[in-house]
Write a structure and sequence with these properties.
Blueprint (H helix, E strand, L loop, with lengths): L9 E6 L2 E6 L5 E4 L3 H13 L1 H12 L3
Antiparallel strand pairs: 1-2, 2-3
């Protein structure tokens, strides 16, 4: 996550030379791309950590 990033709530996932922007609430791909297996793992991880991701998003928006 980046402190001055735009809505909607999302995070960036980087794998090798690929970068993707993933929506926190739905785990859907917003921008970019990842290899299929890496994207699947990121989506699984984001579901398990959704509450933490949303809390971190709020902290970033508050610049904390």
């Amino acid at each position: 996550m980046y402190f001055n990033d735009h809505a909607p709530p999302h995070f960036h996932a980087i794998y090798g030379g690929h970068e993707a922007v993933i929506m926190i609430d739905s785990s859907e791909l917003l921008e970019g791309s990842l290899p299929r297996r890496a994207l699947g793992l990121v989506r699984e991880w984001s579901v398990l950590h959704r509450a933490e991701l949303l809390a971190d998003w709020e902290l970033c928006r508050a610049r904390q």
